[in-house]
Amino acid sequence: MTATEWITDIILILVVFRQLREGRLDLKSFLIPLGIVAFVAYMYLDTVPTGGNDLVLIGALVSVGAALGVTGGICTRIRTAGEHVLIKAGAVSAILWVAGMGARMAFQTWVEYGGGADDVARFSITHHITGDQAWVAAFVLMALTEVVTRLAAIFIRSRSHSRTRTVAAPAAAFERTA
CA-to-CA distance for 16 and 18, rounded, in angstroms? Predict the structure, then answer.
């Protein structure tokens, strides 16, 4: 793994640790993780191979990313305080995020330095996966899907909090005047 890959993976893990402390949900909460995965996709996703069973591998890992992301988004606490929507990643959300990011880092480290390259090559041949670019695409798209689905779940859940706040405020004003 290059220094850039280590730094990027560590930054992605730190994003959720930053949310272990409750903070305001704002545009920055969405743009920072999206910017990081967009950078990763730009740097490492040259093509999406479609030969052999490449799409099966990609689909499987994208599904894992979606499951981790949606579950992590659901397990993120969202509440309102005054005019602000606040979020806090819970233990489950943090564990899922680190598991997803950590699994990719562990796999890459195992392949590059732990002797896993031959095992992955045999698996790829047996299962008709055309090459290492399929693995790269699968893991990058898994990360992208995990981030996007987690943020989508948080966004959708936060809209119901802001809608509740908007509806509750006029009702409270009406009760005071009655």
Answer: 5
Q: What is the pTM of this model?
A: 0.82
Cβ within 8 Å of residue 54, ≥6 positions away: 48, 129, 130, 134, 137, 138
pLDDT tens digits for 131-146?
889 998 999 899 899 9
Cα–Cα nearest to 62, from 143, 136, 135, 151: 143
Q: Which residues of 9-36 are buried (b: 16+ CB within 10 A; e: fewer)?
A: beebbebbeebeeeeebeeebbeebeeb
CA distance 161 to 10: 31
Q: Please give the Cα distance from 123 to 159 (Å, whole number).
A: 44
Round to whole Å and give the CA distance between 131 and 117. Answer: 11
Query: What is the CB neighbour count within 10 angstroms for residue 170?
Result: 9
Query: What pLDDT band is residue 174 in, cutting at 50, 70 and 90?
Result: very low
Tokens of 151: 């943020």
